[in-house]
């Protein structure tokens, strides 16, 4: 078979991504039709910048979901090697293609003869999974510490702020290197850190529900038992992993095991992000706690956590949503950096950072293995930043 | 120089001006068909409620409407030249030199990173190309003109080193640097205290005469306009409804809105029992929901179906007056002197038992200069020996300017702070040192508060209904969700809001409506004492009357004790039974409303009374202007707290005022004054406010 021309390659890629285009079109059509009823999200569709950002982000989310768990878009096994395809340029026909196999390596093969296109798509799932989840955890930690620091002030604020500054002052990459060093992993430090960091969402949920519903015990008690029960189960499954010092759950109870490397990445990303979130939340809360409705809540004898979580927090949401989008972008880059340094991820992992690092070694001869993941990383982060910009702009209007 | 110097026509001539703002949904007309003329040396007042378009007119004159705003019709002529046809360069030349503007917030109008002197010198250097020395000399002259102490030091300081009143004087000085022909003042004193406001208004008037400047004075305060302007223009919902000279409009108004406005403000003589205020019914229409025909139609007592809402109504001249025009079809048919239709009068409610007692309450704050390394500790005495009693069902007004300690006192009463010394007794139980966390539900719900800022009093992310239900939950009222829900709806009825409001978000409500929700929330647990911290000062005049009435009505029904904190003496006289005047943490005078509002006064009360602008041409006021600003509570004067600004100080022999804090003296039954003045001098005091014989 003849190799494909550049034009044909682009055409075929667009064709393969058809489900993604359909999904994107559906989301946009629905959102634009109902934009007046969708609040801030609807306003996003008044800003071209926001729409571009949203389209880029949704593109990668759809690619990740369809390519990852649904296994739709990928043309070849992301880890499978095909002899004769090593470092082949984009559009090369598959050597010895059999019936039912896709006949080309659309974006060429890497130095281990794997399909670059499929690897980029599989890699997107890793990024889209870890980055938002790690950001959510960082926000939980930052909010749970930032609100009391601002609300109570005084010594508590001084101590927490000092700790936050301490973490911020520590070089991030060095911290990562330390955390993945086998000797340190053996001591169980990352697992213990996971224990500490992942307990915050539980505390957060408990305080959130208890402060609101403590006046209605009939509703509060079953609700808390349900939520905390599920939460604790997830929490224990998460922190208890075989082969680490923290392993106590019998395997029939343990819902899932996180591969050690990914847990370390997760922990470190949450660890370095939460002080920044803490500072933002603290600053916003310092401003909002002077409002009259906070004083009104105080004068009717509300508990401190109710005031923090239900009177102050909801009114900081504008800036927090914007920061959330930006932070997913940073986290994505951070994940890329970690992959690039070969930290955490297994060597054959298709995540973008590791793939760029692999491709880097032959960059002067073969450009094509490194370029697609780099462009993917760039467009996703660009999309997130544009989305954040659009949200900020629109939330300030009117 | 140019031809404009010997121009003697009107300085500003606005004809049929229409301004619209364009949002992504629709065009919002902000000003429609507005005309006015300002002659040289004349001061024109522009009065109206917020959202009526008065500031938009000012911005239109400055040709500074932002990206969304546009003049869609009519012309603005300055000294005969059309501003709309000028180029950007010509406009830049004009702004700041021929037309100057003074804004509401003085701190926001000054560059915080530049010394005052440099900011002032910029004006002549840019507009007249003056040299540095000339500019400095001029700056010094102007700063002396605005009566600031030590002008040289002023020029060498940064804006944050000055007080609010001083900053506003600097802004006025800056506006006068280039001797403008037209000065636009947009609510120049709203951010200032009453006594400081009086001094600034005085200054503006005096300088206007000295420099021969024409003024466009924008305000919501009719009393202030009466004191400063020659003519005024009343605006309603984007239109001028009545314009004429001050005397004509105040005494012989020819538009129903003007009349309704005057009936809703507490003038001397109004009384909550025998002559209550008449609130304007309904709400201010939103700019895109204006009614057809007359904008005021739906709220007007003289509305005639099929006539008032049939066509657009033009401005017509009123016969027999000079330049007096009204936008009303029926003004010639209306009997303007007809007495108010039978108003509901209420029997004066008798105060019951003493329920709240303050005994020598003291609240000190410790402020250390340097928190980390100790440093010298300073004590701020926010409240000094506060003693009073409040009875069931009575209204006690607490009057004073910012920094007098009235908010601190409220905090201690609510339990947000604990008293340093002395006690508060509620129903015989001591609560002065019980913080809010330690208070039982019963106590918490019986002492509640209504807050000042309507835009801040409700949580923006929770529906109105849920906020009231939350208060009910906390106060342990109602056993089930359903019970609390129906109680919440009853509370909405109580504050006269439609029941649909339960599902609305606070941003969908107007200021007055939000304040009603705040009142409903405070009364949710059957409060016995309600502290109202300036509950109406941020509302428009027509809404103020309605909210005040509501508060009074609920109070009468529930027999609540109302502690009404305010700086506005007109409203205090209208609704309170007893008055307590505070200055720098001290109670300087206390007594029945009549005792406090008639001589003998405490010198501070006297000055306060004189400072409050009253919108009534038949009132004659003695003119008392206080020198300087309120001293800082960090560094209070020795002896009597008021001695630095007191005009009676030299009447006390032996410099006693400098040395000793005067004791509280009883002048009559229930009337106490903290002053060294001898009885003879106090007896010689004359009333500050006199109603001229008609």
Automatic annotation (TrEMBL), chain A:
Output the superkingdom of the source species.
Bacteria
Q: What is its main location?
A: membrane
Q: Which UniProt keywords apply?
A: Cell membrane, Membrane, Transmembrane, Transmembrane helix, Transport
List membrane-spanning regions: 6-32, 44-66, 125-147, 159-180, 192-209, 221-238, 258-281, 324-345, 365-388
Query: Per UniProt, what is the membrane topology?
Result: Multi-pass membrane protein
The chain positions of domain ABC transmembrane type-1 read 124-388
Pfam families hit by this protein? BPD_transp_1
Acetylation: present as a keyword of the record?
Answer: no
Gene Ontology biological process terms in this record: transmembrane transport
Q: Where in the cell is it found?
A: Cell membrane
Q: Where is the signal peptide?
A: none
Q: Which GO terms describe its cellular component?
A: plasma membrane
Family stated for the protein in its record: Belongs to the binding-protein-dependent transport system permease family.
Q: Please give the name of this protein.
A: ABC transporter permease
Species, as recorded: Harenicola maris
TrEMBL record, chain B:
GO BP term, pick one: transmembrane transport
Q: Provide the Gene Ontology terms for cellular component.
A: plasma membrane
Bilayer-spanning residue ranges: none
Q: Carries keyword Translocase? A: yes
Sorted UniProt keywords = ATP-binding, Cell inner membrane, Cell membrane, Membrane, Nucleotide-binding, Translocase, Transport
Q: Which InterPro entries match?
A: AAA+_ATPase (IPR003593), ABC_Ni/Peptide_Import (IPR050388), ABC_transporter-like_ATP-bd (IPR003439), ABC_transporter-like_CS (IPR017871), Oligopep_ABC_C (IPR013563), P-loop_NTPase (IPR027417)
Top-rank taxon: Bacteria
Task: Using the UniProt record, give the first listed, main subcellular location.
Answer: membrane
User: Does the keyword field hold DNA-binding?
Assistant: no
Q: Which GO terms describe its molecular function?
A: ATP binding; ATP hydrolysis activity
State the annotated membrane topology for this chain.
Peripheral membrane protein
Compartment(s) where it occurs, according to its Swiss-Prot or TrEMBL record: Cell inner membrane
Q: Tell me where in this chain the ABC transporter domain is found.
A: 12-262, 356-609
Q: Which Pfam families match?
A: ABC_tran, oligo_HPY
Q: Of which family is this protein a member?
A: Belongs to the ABC transporter superfamily.
* Protein name per Swiss-Prot or TrEMBL: ABC transporter ATP-binding protein
